[in-house]
Amino acid sequence: MTPRPEGEAAHFRALETLYAQAPINRLFDSTLDITEPGIARIRFRVDERHYHAAGAAHGTSYFKMLDDAAFYACNSLVTDRFLLTTQFNLLLTRPMKAGEVVAEGRWVSGRRRVFVADARLIDASGEEVARGTGTFMRSQIALAGLPGYRTA
């Protein structure tokens, strides 16, 4: 019998499950991994369904994965409330083609009401294709009340 994770690890696993069960993620082949406080990684696959008319990933894919990685890096530090994105700046540096991409999110500052995090996208060749910085604030939405967020 595998023991259930406790404390911090249980919170991380619950956030990973919450991510996996979000309806938007049915549109993306992606998985979230939180290994330590303030750090989140999302592995996802870009394919031609994500392309714009010129044959590379549309900006919505960049934004979604950067925002999610930064968001979960911050929410890994908050065990009672769901955070909300209040602002996000993007820098798209290279076209993103089909293949595996990793979104790396890292908490930068804030622990009370507003949080700041950076994120970057790394393509299959190891090149950074985008980066972003976001701000996130505590909402009135309890994590424990959300479908998918289970710590036990």
Comma- or semicolon-separated keywords:
152 residues, alpha+beta, Thiol Ester Dehydrase, Chain A, six-stranded antiparallel beta sheet, 2 helices, 21% helix, globular
Question: What order do the helices and strands come in, and which of them pair?
Answer:
Blueprint: H1 7-21, E1 29-36, E2 39-46, H2 59-75, E3 81-92, E4 99-109, E5 114-122, E6 128-142
Antiparallel strand pairs: 1-2, 2-4, 3-6, 4-5, 5-6
Structural commentary:
Keywords: Hydrolase. GO terms for molecular function: acyl-CoA hydrolase activity. It comes from Sphingomonas zeae. This protein starts with 6 loop residues before the first helix and ends in a 10-residue tail after the last strand. It has 2 helices and 6 strands, in the order αββαββββ. Helices cover 21% and strands 41% of the residues. The protein is globular. It has helices at residues 7-21, 59-75, and strands at 29-36, 39-46, 81-92, 99-109, 114-122, 128-142. With 152 residues, the protein is an alpha+beta fold. The chain has a single domain, classed as Hotdog Thioesterase (Thiol Ester Dehydrase, Chain A, Roll). It has a 6-stranded antiparallel beta sheet.
Subunit organisation of the chains: single chain
Low-confidence stretches: none
Named CATH topology: Thiol Ester Dehydrase, Chain A
Instruction: Give the % helix.
Output: 10-25%
Strand order in space, largest sheet? 1-2-4-5-6-3
Helix and strand content put the structural class at alpha+beta
Radius of gyration: 15 Å
**What is the name of the CATH class?**
Alpha Beta
